[in-house]
Amino acid sequence: MTSTPPRRKRATVHDVAREAGVSRGTISRLLTGEGYVSAEAREAIEAAIRKVGYVPSTTARNLVRQRTNAVGFVVHEPHSLFLEDPNIGEILLGANEALSEDDYQMVCLVIGSDRDSERVARYLRGGFVDGAVVVSARAHDPITAVMRTSQLPVAFVGHPPDLQGQSWVGIDNLASAQEITARLLATGRRRVGMIAAALDRDSGADRLAGFTRALGDRFDPALVAPVDLYSYSEGAAAMSALLERAPDLDGVFAASDALAAGALDALRRAGRRVPEDVGLVGFDDSAWARRCTPQLSTVVQPAAGLGRAAARSVLAQIAGDQTEPAAILLDTPIAWRASA
Amino acid sequence: MTSTPPRRKRATVHDVAREAGVSRGTISRLLTGEGYVSAEAREAIEAAIRKVGYVPSTTARNLVRQRTNAVGFVVHEPHSLFLEDPNIGEILLGANEALSEDDYQMVCLVIGSDRDSERVARYLRGGFVDGAVVVSARAHDPITAVMRTSQLPVAFVGHPPDLQGQSWVGIDNLASAQEITARLLATGRRRVGMIAAALDRDSGADRLAGFTRALGDRFDPALVAPVDLYSYSEGAAAMSALLERAPDLDGVFAASDALAAGALDALRRAGRRVPEDVGLVGFDDSAWARRCTPQLSTVVQPAAGLGRAAARSVLAQIAGDQTEPAAILLDTPIAWRASA
DNA sequence: CCGCGATGTGTGAACGTGCACACACTAGCG
DNA sequence: CGCTAGTGTGTGCACGTTCACACATCGCGG
Fold first, then answer.
1. Residue of A168, A193, A254, A266 with fewest CB within 10 Å of its CB?
2. Which nucleotides in chain C lie less than 7 Å from some protein C-beta?
3. SS3 sequence of A153-184
4. For chain B, where are the E strands, in sequence order?
5. Which domains does chain A have, with CATH numbers?
6. Looking at the complex, does the CB of residue B68 fall below 8 Å from at least one CB of chain A?
7. How far apart are CA A74 and CA A141, in angstroms?
8. Is B2 helix (H, G, I), strand (E, B) or coil?
9. Count helices and strands in chain A by DSSP H and E runs
10. Packed helices B58-65 and A58-65: angle between N→C axes, nearest 10 degrees
11. Pairing mode, strands B105-111 and A70-76
12. How far apart are CA A302 and CA A30, in angstroms?
């Protein structure tokens, strides 16, 4: 109905050229920092830019340069997990830091629904970004396929099972889960259970595998409580269920700190003391770990480091320095505190 | 040194035209859904698109259309607050939902440093987005000035003091702080303190003002502990300080749930029972509120609603439906639980 | 037979940049 | 004087779309 609003037209390089009495080329050379611009031309141009309020059009520049100096940060999360998982924020900040150093703009794209998924795919393939960091992709995620066919430089944080020839950054979930379980056993616990989550992702499945391997003969499948999300409430519910099945439980490995915090609450409600009656260990070393009373013993996940490493990999691919897909594993120290 | 990597050139509309034996115009009409395309032309074009793997260039489209169908979501937060504040995640998802409904892409821009600030300003002014939602801007934030001079449709969540003629969405911090303080007093508390935060923003200052007004004659400035951030650890520290100054304290209003959670921990450590010895109320109704034991009585901040309202305002400005700057206040019910 | 609206198609001109190239001037050197 | 290298400047074209316009065909009524 209504015609386009009569917004003021923006100043272009032509306006500046007319105002400063030079040609477009000279302005372009000044702005792109190529040199070969006389002092007087420089001053005239700078004055003209201020006068007409000129700002270069990112869009036009992107079109002719065939690159945007922007990298996408794709978050694909169901509502609740995005809010509960403190790692994502850390990963994001780490990636932003690395991109910022190379003067790249990070654009964070959130996928909440299938509709979002399509739109984001269109954007990514439409030359909107020079590359992308993808976090928490699931098995058979449409985005994974899009990234493969589009040939866009990409690095995944974590690796969905259907990754082919694409770079990823992660931690050794299996080894670190095995290690912390072993340390829990070394405190003398005899009946140790696990709250496992997100078994459709590598992180979840590998943590369970590490737990199983550490227990060896002593592994009892009845002591594993699988849940969907790494959330506080699921942790509390799983812990209650576990206590009902095995009242003699004296140790628990929770697949994330949020789960452990929920479990801690359920244990307290059930009258169990931590660590006296039950030893509890978590995973991530997120804010949860220090916030709990007692503070959690946990595997330190270098979240910011993961973001940085993923971003650097994408930048290297863009620059052409990294041509082969790489898998990067970061170290995971263990923070041994009071909960076990 | 190295020349540009020999990346495969992307297919353009010309390639499709040649392949399908039609002209560019017909393809454009099909893709933009204008109609006036015969059935046979449509089929030929669709087949050709699949064959050559054509994806429209967002950049070129944006240039000629003078719009991007994207809205920026600008987060300006120091490291720690961004991670601690659960509201931002909710606001983001609410905004994304509203934008998604109108087929707009949300691009989230994170400002972590001054360098980021400049780069983001360049992007916003460079025609990269059609509008922006800005959260948690501070007093004299450079972004506020950029938004003013650039004439870009914008809506702030919360209102920094130097807002001029720009739309914003928020809650009545003063009235709701006054209301919950009054309810706390109605439970019979006589010595009520407050943990105040972020007094350089409207939210922080207004919550303190509401508290003061509710107390009237009984207000004692010694019972106010001001801190910088809405964080758990600052809440714990402030609570300890407050108890030292006034051991006879029997009620506390914390300016956020995160602060309240920290305060709760400090109270427990000091041997005070909640709510028996001390009544505690918070603000936000974030995940913290239900997670604490006992659960917090608090002011419900409609975070997702704020995001949605801000996004809708920006969309209305883009469409030209909203020409005057508007201030939108959302309702804040009170959730009365167990902590007071 | 002309005019008219509806449907379908092709063509040229933008959009606002960057880049390659041509050109002008100066200084230095044989 | 001519040749070269260095510096500074202007011009045409390309980037990949969309949009306005011109044009063609058809059916139909006056």
1. A266
2. 7-12, 14-21
3. CEEEECCCCCCCCCEEEEECHHHHHHHHHHHH
4. 70-76, 105-111, 131-135, 154-157, 167-171, 192-197, 224-227, 251-254, 279-284, 297-300, 327-330, 334-335
5. 13-56 (1.10.260.40), 70-171+304-332 (3.40.50.2300), 173-300 (3.40.50.2300)
6. yes
7. 12
8. coil
9. 14, 12
10. 140
11. unpaired
12. 42
Model confidence pLDDT, tens digit, residues B281-337: 999 998 789 888 899 999 999 999 999 999 999 999 999 888 899 999 999 999 999
Mutation site for B-interface testing, chosen from A107, A120, A147 by largest number of B Cβ within 10 Å: A107
Q: Are B300 and B285 in contact (CB under 8 A)?
A: yes
The order of strands in the sheet holding B251-254 is B224-227, B192-197, B251-254, B279-284, B297-300, B334-335
Half-sphere exposure of A28 (CA within 13 A, CB side): 9
Chain B, 184 to 203: residues with Cβ < 8 Å from chain A are none
Using CA atoms, how far apart are residues A59 and A44, in angstroms rounded to an integer?
Answer: 25
Q: How far apart are CA B239 and CA B243, in angstroms?
A: 6
pTM score: 0.86
> Are A27 and A16 a contacting pair, CB within 8 Å?
yes
Tell me the C-alpha distance between B147 and B144, whole Å.
5
Q: What's the pLDDT tens digit per position in A312-334?
A: 999 999 998 888 999 999 999 99
The proportion of chain A whose per-residue pLDDT surpasses 70, expressed as a percent, equals 94
Distance (Å, rounded) from C-alpha B254 to C-alpha B193? 9
Distance from CA of A89 to the nearest CA of B (A): 6
Q: How far does Cα A17 stand from its chain's mean position?
A: 44
How far lies A256's CA from each of A229, A244, A253, A281, B314, in Å?
A: 10, 21, 9, 9, 38
In this structure, the protein residues whose CB atom falls closer than 7 angstroms to any atom of nucleic acid strand D are A 21-26, 29, 35-38, 40-41, 60, 63-64, 66; B 9-10, 12-14, 24-25, 27-28, 31-32, 34, 54-57, 60-61, 63-65
Q: Where are the alpha helices (DSSP H) in A170-231?
A: 173-186, 202-215
Q: What is the strand order of the sheet A105-111 is part of?
A: A327-330, A167-171, A154-157, A131-135, A70-76, A105-111, B105-111, B70-76, B131-135, B154-157, B167-171, B327-330
Confidence of residue A293 (pLDDT cuts 50, 70, 90): confident
* Contact between A6 and A21 (Cβ < 8 Å): no
Half-sphere exposure in the Cβ direction for A84 (13 Å, CA): 20
In this structure, what DSSP letter does residue B221 have? G
Strand partners, B40: none
The separation between CA B224 and the C-alpha centre of its own chain, rounded to angstroms, equals 27
B34 CB burial (10 A radius; 0-12, 13-18, 19+): exposed
The count of C-alpha atoms lying within 13 angstroms of the C-alpha of B306, restricted to the half-sphere facing its C-beta, is 28
| A329, containing H or E segment | strand A327-330
